[in-house]
Amino acid sequence: MLFQVYGDNAVYQWIGWILVFCCLIGANELARRTKAGGVIAFLVVPAVLTVYFITIYTAAAMGAEWALNNPTYVHMTSWFHYAKLYAATIGCIGFMALKYKWGSIGKSHWFKCFPFVIVAINILIAVVSDFESAIRGWGTTWISTEGVTLYGGWHNVFNGVAGILNIFCMTGWFGIYASKKKDDMLWPDMTWVFIVAYDLWNFCYTYNCLPTHSWYCGLALLLAPTVANFFWNKGGWIQNRAFTLAIWCMFAQVFPMFQDYSVFSTQSVNNPNVNLVVSLIALVANVLALGYILVRAKKQGVNPWMQEIFKGTKDYEQAITRAA
Questions:
Q1: Which residues span the membrane (predicted)?
Q2: In a domain, 4, yes or no
Q3: Fewer CB within 10 Å: C terminus or N terminus of the chain?
Q4: What is the pLDDT of residues 137-193, one digit of tens each?
Q5: pTM of the prediction?
Q6: Is 97 helix (H, G, I), strand (E, B) or coil?
Q7: pLDDT tens per residue, range 280-310
Q8: Residues in Cβ contact with 162 at an 8 Å cutoff, skipping those fewer than 6 apart
Q9: How many domains does the chain have?
């Protein structure tokens, strides 16, 4: 098995997973359907949390006991968590600017490449973290700043390469549209080819580097936007992903006990051989996805990044019908 979901807490672990999955889908729907929902979720709440984080770290530097014992200060110390939270939130704000056409930026053609840029940055943050683990614990284990035992080795390298390849699997960078109802930013050329390759790579990243969180951020968090895209929000996967990621990061940063020390806590088996197999699957999936994209682009005689290449496919056509 990939996770330690057995024993006395197994029922709670499954209940926790279902709750996270359902709550993320619900929160995404609230944030995407109205402008007020999006503004509250990705402007107001992050602003409040920023004040909260600064206050905690300032008080801790001054030796305040309440701050030194604060769960966020004790359990969420990695640079990765803060980088991911703010990168995802910036992505959400940019996506809202595009779908609501805020200001000259939201209406400009050049800004349509923003989704590609911010997703690439998010991927590279995880790639750096994978390579960091490889360097710090090659062939052995190392302890993260949060006290988590991590293995370093080829699995990190393979998945880091998979992440880099995944960046080039994003096609039609300027093929960004607002939906007719103005509730979604659509990227029709981001079809199942990219989504599956991304999900496998990102799951592997969480499995390699976040073994105590992967049950939730590696499965529930990835499946929530994918399910929404395939069943009722076609073409909106990247917006679903950004919204659910930012919401989850905010929750996890403030309430780390849910994942780290409660009946809902779930560990991966944290076995380097299992990590290696998962990493190889992610790498192969991304090699195949990029190969398919390049072959398809060559047949059409187009640049797959400057132009959309999935026109005529079921996924693309279903998504483009929603565009304004």
A1: 12-31, 38-59, 79-98, 110-128, 157-178, 185-201, 213-232, 244-264, 276-295
A2: no
A3: N
A4: 998 999 988 888 999 999 999 999 999 999 999 999 999 999 998 899 999 999 999
A5: 0.95
A6: helix
A7: 999 999 999 999 999 999 999 999 999 999 9
A8: 200, 201, 204, 279, 282, 283, 285, 286
A9: 1
